[in-house]
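Revision sheet: structure tokens.
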Amino acid sequence: MRPAIRVGEEREGAMTVQGRRVVLALESSGPGGAEQMLLRLAAALARDDHEPIVATLRAGWLTERAAAAGHPVWIVPQRAGLDPGWLFRFGARLRRERIDVVHAHEFAMAVYATAAARALGLRAVATLHGHHWIAGHARRGAALRIVHHCGVPLVAVSDELAGFVAAATRLPRERILVIPNGVPVPPSRDATEIARVRDAVRAELGLRAEQPLVLAIGNLYPVKDHASLLRAIARLPGVAVAIAGRGDEESHLRAIAEETGIAERVRLLGLRDDVERLLAACDLVAHPSRSEGLPLALLEAMAASRAIVATRVGGIPELVRDDENGLLAPPGDPVSLADAIAALLHDPVRRAAFGAAGRTRVEGEFSEGQMARRYAALYAKRTRIAR
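Predicted:
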């Protein structure tokens, strides 16, 4: 049954409305950061009496998890290349299902899904999660500019990305909104419970209880630059590294581990659904990316009170404040990365302080509930054609 719509007082062209049917549309079925963010947004919206529906082009990781969470799933296939017919197929479903808002994620849905929505007079929002969909593609920047002029708010997940999108679309910076990603904040665990999980996970990984362990979370793609992390670990005798993620770089990373003589200290874990356990088992989290929006992996680490060593790229400095809740290093620099990791591994008091500061930041600025409320407020705003 469709939830009741409760309309509040109207102010300055906006309404407070609950109970919306919101389509969360994303081209990819993952796994990846945008897919994880979409699922978390769906969960938070559902808790606030909205009805989220997950829409994508093909079945996969995203649709499996959305269905398991109880969210309706639409799979609307799209032909390769331009497919104008998809607009009519998707639009017909929007009309038939009485949708209130279409929230598109990443470039393809920001164009296709919002066009279908606006043709029906529906409210639409487009969120961009990273640079790669539009970097070096002038036509895509122009397409997003048209989307904006059709009355669709463009949202970036970090201030840095908002500036990049503004430049790519040739729109004033103030036209690009920023809504940071959010994650659930797990309840605090006592030291005994953390030690139990830590020992269990380390035993599963074949590591000594006292062996320093660095954890990285992210798919094995060149842009994540796990190669630099392995070369950094090679400079740190006795330190183990575990990488949770899958991708085409696995064979390359295994070759680097063999070449640098650290294969016995490297654990490539593949896709994991127990990230919280892995975080409890590690001493710190490393994130060596060369490009980022606002990585959920770092928000999860902060929520778990873990200190971080990361690269100074994209939106990372908006999460990791250097020498407050982590250390920042230049991208593609294994020596600097190794130095930062060593500094924290040798200073448990500093690590604990960084971890506590990170959790406080997530609680105050980057929770899942805050993210959902910010988007819900945007859904409620009246859409105007931009001039």
